[in-house]
Amino acid sequence: MSLPIFYLNENIAVQVSPLLSAYHITSFHTLNVGNQGVTDEEQLQYASQKGYILATHNRKDFRKIHTSWLGDAKTHSGIVLLTCGTPENISIRIKKFIEDKFPSLQTPFCELLSN
Questions:
Q1: Which of 20, 41, 44, 108 is the most exposed, fewest CB within 10 Å of its CB?
Q2: Closest CA to 79 of 47, 42, 103, 104
Q3: End-to-end Cα separation, the chain, in angstroms
Q4: CA distance 35 to 106
């Protein structure tokens, strides 16, 4: 199984990306690709075009976007909705998600990763 690549929305701390790298998980932060300030829909479009899983704290809006995309028969590579935590905690939850849940999921998915 190849590891997924994560696209970290701008509300995720930039420190999460190097922490994920320590687990050999590739990620890109919104700020590092020049997408700060773009709409949530555009964030998901970017992640989808690249084949990345979008990670965000914005649970309410991205649940709605996910549902809307399903209704429009649009697909994406997945969304992980994160409750707040330290960058270390968030990176551990993403690592655990890859180990425990990711292998059995089919896209498009929208999964909550809580503490």
A1: 41
A2: 47
A3: 25
A4: 27
Question: How many whole angstroms separate alpha carbon 115 and alpha carbon 112?
Answer: 10
Dihedral angle sign, alpha carbons of residues 27, 25, 15, 63:
positive
d(CA 23, CA 46): 24
Q: Tell me: the pLDDT tens digits for 28-76?
A: 999 999 999 999 999 999 999 999 999 999 999 999 999 999 999 999 9
Closest listed residue to residue 4, CA positions, set 69, 65, 43, 52: 52
> Cα–Cα distances in Å, from 32 out to 15, 29, 101?
12, 5, 27
- Are 48 and 68 within 8 A, CB to CB? no
Q: How far apart are CA 95 and CA 62, in angstroms?
A: 21
DSSP state of 51: T
